[in-house]
């Protein structure tokens, strides 16, 4: 649904991306492959991210503010890029898994569009404040892997009270996963290190935990995301919208043989007002599932509007989830409307194949969310329509 911004950001960002790509076509300074056979040189690396952010900030003449929010385990800066001065706050993060890279490109393209001097961009900046975290896990991004590079022993140096605790369930120090040798190079899945209690202090009794239990904020990357979120809460009272950009494997739109281009989701913990969510009762006054569903519908409807194309192969990620250890689950319980983007294929299975198509899908979906929040058209959507979006299937239906 279009509001007062007649020209959508999706169209603008597509034009910007085609005319002025922010990613390098190739980079001879880094290897074409890492621990798999796919060429990933066309994706953004850490140095290219730094260069792009500097250029965007400089060209914007103060419209975009780039800051260092924290450091990764290996000491790489984790950046935020902020644009807009409105009272409605959107936080968007990408590459919490370092082999899921298209969201970073989409964010940089959108930053160029949003910092422009068009009437639409100016009106949106008046209504919303957007904070992007384009590369949440730079260590993993540089190594082209899912997890960070923090070992259990190194973590104990920061949290000695955990000495003797069982290793957390999201710590991998053995075997091969997604073509990467974690036995030789252990690390944490940062995406499971969040806690609805944003002031939580790690305690040994809470380990090893499980996928349906909160995390601990023991990784510097999760701590940085949490600190950005809390600082926005302190400044604005709440973070209205949180979007997390990810990749997934090869799945199908339920009832079809169509490979999913992008999965969406609004649900990461059960509603605290229901029996299933009663353990989250302390967060019941903040949780707003209907708003999350409306946000997801903005992206879904926009991508469906492109007719018979790959943009219409959109489905719902697995529902009825209980994942309080994710940023999406934790931030939803703290009052944010939440949206998960899961585009098809990680680098070990995708490389650069279809990268442009997937980046455009993320850009257009994000653009619709930004515009719908800015002009309040999100509130005109019936949240129950979310339930009509087809589910993701593991196998094709013929």
TrEMBL record:
Domain Peptidase M14: 42-373
InterPro entries in the cross-refs: Peptidase_M14 (IPR000834)
Active-site residue numbers: 342
GO CC annotations, alphabetized: extracellular space
A GO biological-process term: proteolysis
Cofactor: Zn(2+)
Keywords on record: Carboxypeptidase, Hydrolase, Metalloprotease, Protease, Signal, Zinc
Domain of life where this protein originates: Bacteria
GO molecular function (one): metallocarboxypeptidase activity
Signal peptide location: 1-24
Family: Belongs to the peptidase M14 family.
Protein name: Zinc carboxypeptidase
Taxonomic source organism: Planococcus massiliensis
